[in-house]
């Protein structure tokens, strides 16, 4: 990552978005990208992507995320193939606060309920690429798991404090 950072020009989100043909959030498995939400462009389902700046050549700007992870990918269409690299703006996880603000999404919940993608940089549209609501369920499930985990951790902390109080008395 540090080699790529040294090789990439600092660009604003506007510049990165303008350069991309497709910006989408989804799950990356090898060279297959399962689109869950489109921010710019038009695509749906699973598409094939290339993570190398130059086909067949390893460079310092190749994008190398962990397999099976959620990604926000900034993709260029080159010779009929979607391509990203470490300088494009692609990153692990959901669109961040700056991206949500740029694309007109007030918060993470709005990301899942916007009813489509963004057809033009900075403008809402009715593009395709939603995942028929499963993203909302995923966010709700994640929230529920976090809440249950927090309760469990809180209970363990209470037990530890009581034991410590009993041992010092």
Q: How do the strands and helices of this protein lay out in sequence?
A:
Elements: H1 2-7, H2 13-19, E1 22-29, E2 32-40, E3 46-50, E4 69-78, E5 81-83, E6 91-92, H3 97-102, H4 108-113, H5 134-168
Parallel strand pairs: 3-5
Antiparallel strand pairs: 1-2, 1-4, 2-3, 4-5, 4-6
Keywords:
169 residues, five-stranded mixed β-barrel, 36% helix
Low-confidence parts, pLDDT < 50 over ≥5 residues? 115-140
Shape: elongated
* First-residue to last-residue Cα separation: 52 Å
Question: Secondary-structure element order, as H and E?
Answer: HHEEEEEEHHH
In which order are the strands of the major sheet placed? 1-2-3-5-4
- Counted by DSSP, the helix tally is 5
Helix-strand category: alpha+beta
Q: What's the count of strands?
A: 6
Briefly characterize the structure.
The protein has 169 residues and is of the alpha+beta class. The termini are far apart. The chain is built from five helices and six strands, in the order ααββββββααα.
Give a verbal description of the structure.
With 169 residues, the chain is an alpha+beta fold. The chain contains five helices and six strands, in the order H-H-E-E-E-E-E-E-H-H-H. Strands 1-2-3-5-4 form a five-stranded mixed β-barrel. A hairpin with a 2-residue loop joins strand 4 and strand 5. The chain is elongated. The chain starts with a helix and ends with a helix. About 15% of the residues have low confidence.
